[in-house]
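Work package 3, deliverable 3.1, input record:
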Amino acid sequence: MSLHKDDGIVLFKRAYGESDRIVRIFTLTSGKIGAIAKGASKSQKRFMNTLEPFNHIAVEYFEKYGKGMVRIENAHVVEANAGIEKTLRKVCTASFFTEFADRLTKEREKNTSLFYLLKEVLTRIKDVEFDYRDILYYELSMLECLGYMPNFTTCVYCGKAMANENRLYFSSERGGILCPRCSRFIPHKTYPDEVIATLAGLKNGHPRPVPAADGEENRSVAPYDVGDGVFERSAREIMEGFVSFHLDVEFKSYRVLKSVIR
Amino acid sequence: MYYPAPIERLIENLSKLPGIGRKTATRLAFYLLNAKETYVADLSKSLVEIKEKIRLCSVCFNITDVDPCAICTDERRSKSTICVVEESSHMMVIESANPGMYRYHILHGVINPIEGIGPDEVRIKELRERVIREGIGEIIIATNPNIEGNTTAHYIAEMLQDLNVTITRIASGIPIGGDIVYIDPLTIKSSIDNRRDL
Ligand SMILES: [Zn+2]
Ligand SMILES: [Zn+2]
């Protein structure tokens, strides 16, 4: 039994019995861990309100049950979730990315860049309301961090590099684009000109927008709508298909997020 | 070893209750077997009754056997103030501290997108309708001061902002009789932010 100290972001909490709490935390040095906090729901404990979703905490835990759940000994808040509760959209967005990190990682797989990315998302949500492009950008960034990035540049079947104007066919099952030849015998959906190229460019060329002091954002990205919401609708279909067919996960928070983002 | 089928069935049913294992269930079953006929009849009747007679009040969504519930029809209570709580059990806690003062609105949950619970899954729309219908002057939001409870409070405030209703939130701070030294920084901050004139 040894005491560990780490930084972590709380992904999930659930009451356990009368006064205990089970949490999942994405830690900086050990990846995701499941933990039990004894007496966390009772007011006497100092860490009662630290083990709340979206909090960045400093945590001390005992590796007690082998590679299973750890026992939290102490925790304090490094950056509180305060601000995320202000609007439903903020909370839904934060929930989506937190669930994303939770569901697509295995326990004890260290991923420092995912930790910092999640931290960045949660901090940013407090300052700005995400639009669908922000969500797309961070969704793709997370997929990249996790090694699940859809292939938007070469045909997933024959490997042929594709020019922007030929990126029209996307296969959810195979997780990427197809060349015209392969598209003849592999199931896919066809998207309007520039949709896939824009989606690919969003990730690569997107300068991380930094909110100015007055809250107004400085966005110097290429026009992203092919017109009339076509890009947004198509991008959403591509991403939903990719996540549900290729990664085989369904996010509980996504349905609620969708009803808010429209 | 097996008991006669009716006893087995009882043991099996009892062991489905929270915190009751097969051993305890067996003990309870034998207790009931030896108990007075009238007690067992009474117990089984009350079990059936909670399913037959208990429902939600159509006004406040509290659990009740009469509709509207006794609280909603209590003329001595404020007509203009509604206290909004997550669950019936929370209502009981507030009621015992302020007996006979308020009427309530039970949300039956809080917004929690990670668990797939959005605003439509809790009774916020009904609260808005009620505020309009009854001309409510003040809403006290008494959801828990955690991320879900705070989210729900903010959302309710947003949903009611076009109505002429005062919206207040229960305070978070140092418990009465508590010691500042043992209070976490967030609570201390809240108690300072929400300080009041003396
Ligand atoms: Zn090909
Ligand atoms: Zn009622």
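The beta strands of chain B are 55-56, 63-64, 81-85, 103-106, 138-141, 166-169.
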